[in-house]
Give the backbone structure.
Amino acid sequence: MALYSEKVMDHFRNPRNVGEIPDADGIGEVGNARCGDIMKIYLKIKDGVIEDVKFNTFGCGSAIASSSMATEMIKGKPLSQALELTNKAVAEALDGLPAHKMHCSVLAEEAIRAAIKDYYDKNGIEYDKSLFPEPDEDGEIHG
Amino acid sequence: MSRTAIEAMLPYLDKIYGNPSSLHSAGQEAKEALEAARADVARCLGAQPNEIYFTSCGSESDNQAIRSAAHLGAQKGKKHIVSTAFEHHAVLHTLERLKKEEGFEVTLLDVHSSGVVSAEEVRAAIRPDTCLVTVMFANNEIGTVQPIAEIGAVCREAGVLFHTDAVQAVGHIPVDVVGQNIDMLSLSAHKFHGPKGVGALYCRKGVRLLPFIDGGAQERGRRAGTENIAGIAAMAAALKEACAGMRENAAKLTALRDKIVAALTKIPHSRLNGDMEHHLPGTVNMCFEGIEGEGLLLHLDDRGVCASSGSACTSGSLEPSHVLLAIGLPHEVAHGSLRLSLSEYNTEEDADRIIAAVPEVVEYLRSMSPVWKEMERGEMKHLI
């Protein structure tokens, strides 16, 4: 059996939503180059809805595929729904990830969360702090 | 696998299916093949046939050689071993176990940014209680060749056993166990177009090997278990062929390698790893800043280039290659490594395909890398 599912390979080969948003409303970056993964998510938000989303990722095939799939899953969705996105849902949408690559989907979830928090912070919007746990010293929240 | 090796293997899967331990004629025919293979392997290494032990792989040979030398050392109260930081895991993990379980002390020599150790450094590390020096002939990832004959001479002078993991060297560059002062040497068939799952251990006459598998009297009691005759015959055939064509293959590979290196080092912020003066003909190892190796490999595979990398993701662990860290590369850089292993079956067209594909993929991956963008904007320093 191949390391990755067809879905992962498709999102790796043809990643959706690659790029930057120069006037993004929220930016989230998680990961650490030392560990070999950095994910950066840009959000354009209007009336509490994610109008546009882009990503840049330094990482392996599953990190790129997870970024692509996660951005697809939150595009056009209200923030409340985007905050509910779990790494498991991202991995499932990719028809699964190998066990040692699950942290890539965790990074995707955390990058989105960090971008939304950035948006809230920039706009002085109140939020439930428990929704945004502090990353550990690696700069990522291990799942 | 080479055609010669496949042809050499087939009769022993079919017509000559005897067990070499059997007295009947089919068994004896197999026994003859076994001994002919032993003589061939010995000749290619400059050894005597009774100094060659067949094993299942290079790792097994490494394990058996090191454990045997450690056992001999321990009997004399010598429990110190000298090795290098960038050995294969078959060596490093064996040493680690000897340290943990049997109280050995291990000195791992620095391999410098060049990836080459000197005989003088080995001499300086040898202590009165040193029982073994084990230094690889050529590094499997970066291809650097060590001064084996000089290290062997230092060990002889000090009366310390010398083992070399020559898995990458045998069949590719000249190996002569006598002239190079080698006491024990590991090799693996698939590195010279032989089958996988077969290896050999050269052990100089007078050095007592510790049996690794207990059982029958195969391999003169040093390794029990019915011999893999087909694999062994194929290994011997492949090695003979590799040694006969060594000079010609090396010239061809060096030209291909240099052409690829010249083209790929033009990629900005790339680094060629390992001293190219002391190098295997067919190995290229490079790092490209701002990208991660696995993505590079997958895209190259799509373009018909099968390569490997020292990134953490490709190793299945969180750490990038210990070899790249040993030559002093930062983690960030080591993650973006590419290793190409060329063989004489590769063509100019293959080299051209690599030269076209690698810059394209590196540029593409950099275009979506937040690390690369920060470097380009001057927010982060380039490391290479």
Observations:
- Residues 118 and 316 of chain B are 32 Å apart (CA to CA).
